[in-house]
Amino acid sequence: MNSLYHYDIHLPANMEQGRKYPVVFTLHGKGSNEKNMFGLVSPLSEQAIIIGIRGNLPLGAGYQYYELVSLGNPVRSVFDDSVKGLRAFIDDATEQYPIDPEKRYVLGFSQGAILAMTLALTMGDALKGIVALNGYVPGFVKEEYPLRNLDKVSVFASHGEFDSVFPIRIGHETKAYLEERAPLLTFKVYPADHGVTEENARDVLNWIRRDAGLDLGEEGEAR
Predict the structure, then answer these.
(1) Tens digit of pLDDT for each residue in 130-171?
(2) For a 10 Å CB count at each end of the chain, is N or C smaller?
(3) CA quadruple 37, 40, 41, 43: dihedral positive or negative?
(4) Number of other residues whose CB lies within 10 A of the CB of residue 81
């Protein structure tokens, strides 16, 4: 696949010929890489395709999708290019791999969560759902982007109660904004800093499994 982005892909081990599979595209946080989020969703890899997308801008030993003017203030032109590039990547991957276009999910943490929410707001029901962990929606996205209807888009958003990067106030503002636009919203707060707790990870897995119609283990727990 010809793309601006390097990526890490995991296909189900026992894929059936002619079958289309749900996909989870993962977007990492600032300074990380395309493999960082796989551990969170690896239990889904027997029933879904997992594609980790690496930011195309080097940052220290890792990568980022866009640069910042200051904390919480993306460089607009670079951010715009990233959103366009990721939309194209999602569509190209859907053409190349056996992906069910009606079961496409984007999961992101921090910078990746910001992009996941922006992609949902701009792609609408071209996505089945998103998971946004410890992020926010930039003001210029709310005010200047052409936004799509989210009535059919499932959204799981969460925030750390003690987040030292994006304070919990930002999480509550994000919840209020999404509540007005996404009727299929699940929002949770966890006793964490800027990270993902075991409970948060378990809730994400179970949410994706239920929303995508994947198998559940005993008592509804993700297998």
Answers:
(1) 999 999 999 999 999 999 999 999 999 999 999 999 999 999
(2) N
(3) positive
(4) 15
pTM, full prediction: 0.95
Are 109 and 131 a contacting pair, CB within 8 Å? no
Q: Domain 7-220 - what CATH class? A: alpha beta
- DSSP track, 10-30: E--TTPPTT--EEEEEEEPPT
Give 216's pLDDT tier (boundaries 50, 70, 90).
low
**160 and 193 Cβ atoms separated by less than 8 Å:** yes
102-128 pLDDT, tens digit per residue, is 999 999 999 999 999 999 999 999 999
The Cα-based distances of 20 to 48, 100, 164 in angstroms read 9, 5, 41
Q: In what order do the strands lie in the sheet with 154-160?
A: 7-10, 49-53, 21-27, 99-109, 129-133, 154-160, 185-190
So where are the chain's domains?
A: 7-220
- Which distant-in-sequence residues (6+ apart) come within 8 Å of 70 by Cβ? none
Compute the distance between CA of residue 70 and CA of residue 82 in angstroms, rounded to an integer.
Answer: 18
DSSP 100-153: EEEEEEEEEETHHHHHHHHHHHHHGGGSSEEEEES----HHHHHHS-PPP-TT-
